[in-house]
Amino acid sequence: MSKLTDIGYIKSVLGRNGFTFSKALGQNFLVDPEVCPKMARLCGADDCTGVIEIGPGAGVLTNELALVSRKVVAVELDKRLLPVLAETLAEHDNVKVINGDVMKLDLHKLIEDEFAGMDVVICANLPYYITSPIIMKLLEDRLPVKAITVMVQKEAADRICASPGTRESGAISAAVHYYSEPNKLFAVPKTSFIPSPKVDSAVIRLDVREEPPVSTDDEKLFFRVVKAAFLQRRKTLSNSLSAGLSIPKAKTSEILIQAGIAGNARAEEMTMEQFAAITAAVQQMENL
Ligand code: SAM
User: Fold this and answer.
1) Which residue, by CA, sits nearest to atom 10 of ligand 1?
2) Around 21, how many Cα atoms within 13 Å sit in the side-chain half-sphere?
3) Are 147 and 242 in the same domain?
4) Domain check: are 70 and 134 in the same one?
5) Could you tell me if residue 214 is inside a domain?
6) For residues 284 and 288, what is the distance between their CA atoms, to the nearest angstrom?
7) Which of 22, 34, 40, 163 is the most buried (most CB within 10 A)?
8) Quick one: 180 and 230 in the same domain?
9) Does pLDDT of 112 surpass 70?
10) Of 208, 238, 255, which closes a domain?
């Protein structure tokens, strides 16, 4: 068992370095001895694979990733953690810590510079204040990675993994399904962290697709349609599209007829194919 899940040890390392937890940076550190080995085992890492970790914290997951992969590059925003990580990861010569904001980093360049000739996966216990923007950046950047395994709040995991066309689905479900095949791996109770967050978590893996599951001539418009559809999820699709795309209601009704969709349908009932059909109908209308 790693000493990094020993609360006494971790508190003494953090204390010695004058570290105090920042809520604003989503700092809840894992102390459950089973979670990180399991994440490292299920994320697709092996001795031919490089791993990008986001937010190593005190290095508990980084340590497990270093044991199973060829190389780990961990991106940590909080520079107060750098001396902590230097101490906790001292025994690994295949780990590099970069001080930076994952939202601002050029991850294509990082992969080119650090992982030449390796397969690459991403594995992280994400800071909750910024879960969806990070996931969307990782997918939209179309990084050459095989899979993205992340711990997120349980509700976010449910929403992200929900199939479009089901009640739990939202704009993020459609976007994530466009780029990847999401799967829930396992649940993690809030008691697995210090400090303990208010809600439980879950680990999900997004297997990155080579091709999207539906084809559209205008990807940007597809995502505008999805966002607009869910903008007012209690309203009918026709109303939401009208408000979200700034198109008169009479036109959105025509668009839905053209796409073969009932006038009283709601966004959560739409499959990926139906979103693609709406996109094609909007495009056709715009070209008239
Ligand atoms: N991996 C550690 C663990 O499981 O115990 C810590 C996870 S903690 C939920 C999230 C980590 O992400 C923190 O260390 C925090 O400082 C870092 N972080 C927050 N925002 C970040 C950002 N924009 N870029 C990189 N790291 C960030």
Assistant:
1) 127
2) 14
3) no
4) yes
5) no
6) 7
7) 40
8) no
9) yes
10) 208
Q: What is the CATH number of the domain that holds 57?
A: 3.40.50.150
Ligand 1 center to 74 CA (angstroms): 10
Q: Is the CB of 73 under 6 A from ligand 1?
A: no
For helices 272-287 and 219-231, the axis angle rounded to 10 degrees is 110
- What distance in angstroms lies between residue 84's CA and the mean position of ligand 1's atoms? 13
Q: Whose CA is nearest to atom 23 of ligand 1?
A: 101
What residues pair up with 51 in beta bridges, in sequence order? Answer: 72, 121
How much is the mean pLDDT over the chain?
Answer: 96
253-275 per-position pLDDT tens digit: 999 999 999 989 999 999 999 99
Whether 190 and 162 map to the same domain: the answer is yes
**Does the beta carbon of 170 lie inside 6 Å of ligand 1?**
no
44 lines ligand 1 (CB under 6 A): no
| Predicted model pTM | 0.95
Nearest partner of 204 among 129, 134, 131, 149, judged by Cα: 149
Output the CA 109–ligand 1 centroid distance in Å: 21
SS3 258: helix
Do 14 and 151 fall into the same domain? yes
Tally of domains in the chain: 2
